[in-house]
Every structure is written in structure tokens, then in C-alpha cells.
Amino acid sequence: MADMMWAGRFSKQVDDTVNAFNSSIAFDGCMYKHDIQGSIAHATMLGDCGIIPKDDSVKIIDELKKISADIESGDLQLDPSAEDIHMFIEAELTKRIGDVGKRLHTARSRNDQVALDLRLYLRDEIKEIQELVIKLINTVIDIAKQHTETVMPGYTHLQRAQPITFAHHLMAYVAMLLRDLERLGDVNKRMNYCPLGCGALAGTTYKTNRQQTSDLLGFTAPMENSLDGVSDRDYCIELNCALSLIMTHLSRFSEEIILWCSWEFKFIELDDAFATGSSIMPQKKNPDVTELIRGKTGRVNGNLVTLLTMMKGIPLAYNKDMQEDKEAIFDSVDNVKLCVKTFIPMLATMRVLKDNMRNAAAKGFINATDCADYLVKKGMPFRDAYKITGTLVALCIEKGLTLETLPIEEYQKMTELFTEDVYQAISLDTCVKERKSYGAPAPDAVVVQIENAEKKLDEIVDLI
């Protein structure tokens, strides 16, 4: 029983299976830096407030720094039989400096301690994910700049719909990723409040200085309510939601890359370093990276459901159910980082097959809307123009022609508004270049999108 710091109430040794079931050090050990960081702030406050002798505070802080260095160097290994990282570090501290180490937990509970550690840990992880998303956005923008005039078909229902450019298509993902980046910042802003000093649930009778520990740890302010401070996991759920959206965007992008590098599309070719082969079919070049991202999206989304379900029926304040928060959110964080890190160089090294994109755009009557607009600009109501153009498309299909190769005589049978200039109006280059409304695929309009995205990115980076 001596190893359990809460053992005074108990007359029996806890069953070994319960100890193993209860232990969390296998996954919360990664928070050792943050646990020590929080303990140093707490010890500093205890000493400054005279709750413990100043000399003891200094001794605790010095030894905590040594423990951190020893873990970092590998000289001190985490004990897999320890209950959690908090108990491990406190036990190690007490082993090294005796009774002085036992003073550290004054005016603190594991409930506010773990709430603090998790916020500190996720704050660092958010920053790392933000940096990765910024790199991804810049990578996509760099590719877009090279393809403002690369014509490709735009799709609805996965059917060729209207002509766009590859740059325009890519900038849609930039817009998504910029929102992702903003969401991460929003999560961090709401998460950045300090629960340290909330105690088990009802604060403490000691005259602590919560503002001091909040300031030392770089938080905006102490949390206002001690019950909320120890039982809030909104930030885990909100962060996982933001991560799920990142993965959803990566998954949609991945699905398109999978289609684009198939022989049926052949719009792009992945670098050999970011594809795999088949064990039996020597011709295969498989987009495994993007397929794994699709799969891992389900995993991250599953973690979001885990967190929501874990919290939905828990009364205030802390309950042991909440130990399940870390495995879920840590897994989501790790998988998002892994996917973005792999996605960036895969995109940067892929080869864009511009001719194939343009050839695909030349098929499927994706200039039909432009043909209808041609008539509208000559005074015809849109619905009438729509019907005439649809009839012409049906005629082309019947005769094995396209709108570009359909004789002018056939056009003029439908209406005398058609003249030879219709062929210029429905050419792919015209169709794209005339789509110059704000946010559209015309090269000049996409250049504006790129400039605005870079400006927005700079604004977000300045806030990080």
C-alpha cells in the first residue's frame, strides 16, 4: 500500500488487475514535461504565498528540473507500473528530496493537475498542427500559381459540368484549410484558461494566488468556476471536431487524387516515393498514402464520437470516465500530424498532366451553359436558351458531334440569333476566361483568390 499515495483510507491491497485497469501512464506519460511545468508554477506560487517555506519551494523546483532533464536524456525511465504520470513524478521527487517533496501537492488535487496538464499539452500540439497546416496551404498555393491557365473539367455528381482551371480547384482546398487554421486558433483561445487551483472540485482553504500560476503558465486567466475547471473537456471535443474537419478535407482531397491518378482520369501522376506497388500485378502504382488518409479520417471521427459519448452522461465534477479523454484526443492529434506531414511532400512532388486535363475538358459538353448564356446575351430568356441548348446537345450526341463541330446551319435551325461567333463564345479558353466574377475560375480571378488567401494566411499567422 505504501506505493499508493491515496492509500490511507484503504485496508486492503488493490487487486493487480484493478491496478492495471486503472493505470494511465502508458498514454499520459507523454505529458511529463507539462506536468513538471505545472508543478514548477505551483511550487513557485506556494513559496511566494508563504504556504510552504521558500527554501522548500526552491528545492522542489530545482529537483523537478533535474527530473525533467533525466527523463529527456533517458537516464530516468517512466515506471509502467505507476498509476499515472502525476504520481510517478511526485513519487520520484519524494524519493530524491524526502519530506520536502511531499509538500508539492499542498493546495492541489490530481483533478486540477490533470486538467492543467492536458491543456498545456494540447496547446503545444495545436501550435505544431497549425505550423503543419500553414506548410500545406503554402504548398497548395505554390502549385496553384503554376496552373492558373491549366484548363480542366469541373464536376457535379462526378459528371463533367463546366470548365474551370486546376488552380481554381486547388484554391477551394486552400479556402477549407484556412478555415481549419482559424478553427484551431479559436479552440486554443477558448482552451487557454487555467484550471490549476480548482482543487478536487471546490478550490482550497489555502490563500493561493491563482492569477500568479495562470500568468506563469501563459494562460489568459484562471478558470472562473472550480467545478467547471476540473470537469470541463469541451476543449478536447472542440479540438477533435476541428481535427475531424481537417481530416475530412484531406480525405476529400485524397479521394480526388485517387481518381486523378487512375488511368480513367490520368490528370496527375504521383512520385514513385509516394506510391506503392502490388505483390502480384507488376504494372500497379497504388496511391496508398491517400487511401490511408481516407481510412484514418474514420478513426479521427470515431474519436470525436468517443469524447462526446464519454461526456454526455457525467455529473459534476470529475469522474474516472474522463481518463478516456486522453487516448482519444492524443490519437486524433497524432494521426492528423502524421497525415499532413505525409500529404505535403506527396503534393509537392506530383506531376500535373495538363494535356490530359484539357482533353477531358473538351468532352462532355461542359460548354453547354456558355452556349445558353450566348443566347441570353442576345436577348433570349434563359429558360428558352436552356431548352434550345439541351436540344442541340441531344443532336450532337445523336450525330457523334460536339458543340464546337456542329455546323452553323444546325444552330440556325433553332434560332437566327446564332452566328459564326458562337464558336468563339463556346471555346474552352473563352469559357474559362469569361468566368471572371469574384471567386470564379478565370485566371485573373484566381490570381485575386491567391493574393487574398496569402493575405489571410499572413493575418492568421500574426495571431498565432
Helical coverage, percent range: 55-70%
Number of strands: 6
**Radius of gyration using CA atoms only:** 30 Å
Strand percentage lies at: under 5%
Average of pLDDT? 94
Terminus-to-terminus distance: 47 Å
The string of secondary-structure elements, in order, is HHHHHHHEEHEHEHHEHHEHHHHHHH
- Which strand order spans the largest sheet, edge to edge or round the barrel? 1-2
What is the number of helices?
20
Low-confidence stretches: none
Q: Biggest sheet, open or closed, and with what strands and sense? A: 2 strands, antiparallel
- Computed structural class: mainly alpha
Shape: elongated
Account of the protein in words:
This protein has 464 residues and is mostly helical. The chain contains 20 helices and 6 strands. The protein has helices at residues 16-22, 25-28, 32-48, 54-73, 85-97, 99-102, 110-145, 166-191, 210-216, 226-231, 234-260, 288-311, 324-349, 354-361, 368-377, 382-399, 408-414, 422-425, 428-433, 443-463, and strands at 151-156, 159-165, 193-194, 221-222, 268-269, 351-352. It has a two-stranded antiparallel sheet. Strands 3-4 form a two-stranded parallel ribbon. A hairpin with a 2-residue loop joins β1 (151-156) and β2. α3 crosses α9, α11 packs parallel to α13 and α12 (288-311) runs antiparallel to α13. It starts with 15 loop residues before the first helix and ends with a helix. The mean pLDDT is 94.
Features:
464 residues, mainly alpha, two-stranded antiparallel ribbon, two-stranded parallel sheet, 20 helices, 5% strand, elongated
